[in-house]
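Task 17 of the worksheet. Students: predict the tertiary structure of the chain below and write it out as structure tokens. Keep your answer in the requested format; marks are given for formatting as well as content.
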Amino acid sequence: MPRDRRWDFLHDLRKQPVKEWILERLAEELARDLRAWPPHGDWLDEAERARHPAAAASPLGERALRCALAVARLDLARDDEGAERAAAEGSEGLSADEAWGLRLAARWIAERCLSVKEEAEGARLSRADLVGAVRRAARLLSGGPG
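Model answer:
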């Protein structure tokens, strides 16, 4: 009886550690969700939504999106002063709604990353890993290689 070769391709596949796989999926999901901003679901409480209805419902401009990613990276790296400075500098020249959208997006990105870290406890994701995933999402959004 000849040898069954239909599963031979599995031998040639590259093994990928779970941690790396989780971070790649996170970056891809962040990029996808940021392209379709605002995200669906209850990501923002009603009081916040009422205070900034246009910011919570409007798509992000390119500049606001880049700044939100930078602020989220600094926030995840626990550089609160840097994050606040980047948000203030990034908000210059934006409308009030765009500035709030920037801050809401940065908060959403950081919270999404931290929730994945919490859910994937066994993968031992660090904040530096999450910063890398946000950087990868930024590259995916800019059309560069992931």
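Marker's comment: The longest helix spans residues 96-119. Helices lie at 9-12, 18-35, 46-51, 53-57, 62-76, 80-91, 96-119, 127-141.
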